[in-house]
Amino acid sequence: IFLPKANKIVLALSSFHTEDDTVVEVPHLGIDKPEIILFYNKTKSGVDKVDEMKAAYSVARKTRRWTLVTFFALLNIGGVNAYVVFKGNTESTMARNKFLSTLAKQLLEEHLRMRVHQENLPVSIRYRLSEILEVPQRRQERPRAAPAPGGARGRCGDCDRKKNRPTRFTCENCNKYICLEHVRCFVCHDCHARVVFNEVEDDSD
């Protein structure tokens, strides 16, 4: 038991120190402190360093659920421990933010590769997953949008019905009317995603 000031009691429990430990005088404070307190102040820097590293790159989010708070804390501590193990077993000079992003990507990679081949996912999502996985893509010329034959006009299939925007251009893949606002590489959005993703699957095979 240590009483640094009136009405403030510090209880210290240690399996390393005993009651016979001496009390050390601290000249600049003009008080005596138990050796257990001085030992703690001398060696507690590791805890502060871990707290600092966790706060620098934290996955924690505001929540009222204590289970999520615990989960976020475990992720932060796990990230710090993983980086310490990595640095201790390699001579790499990789920065911690780069290490954490690489670690997260490697943990997700197997799941992403499974989802990229799910036919029930929208093509745009599967294409985005292929970009994240850095699957090589074959470049080729995209089909162009062309005026409808005979100068016919129709409502843009990608515009909201409230706009009711007529256009004379059609997609060469599906012949859907598209206005210039929704032309993407001279094809409509759906065909663009479908064509590009088919190229990705062909290259992966």
TrEMBL record:
Where on the tree of life does the source sit, at the highest rank?
Eukaryota
Which stretches does the entry tag as region Disordered? 138-157
Start and end residues of each PiggyBac transposable element-derived protein domain: 7-83
Q: Origin organism of this chain? A: Graphocephala atropunctata
Keywords for the protein's UniProt record, in alphabetical order:
Membrane, Transmembrane, Transmembrane helix
Q: Look up the signal peptide feature and give its range.
A: none
Q: What is this protein called?
A: PiggyBac transposable element-derived protein domain-containing protein
Where would you find the membrane-spanning parts of this chain?
A: 66-86
Pfam families according to UniProt: DDE_Tnp_1_7
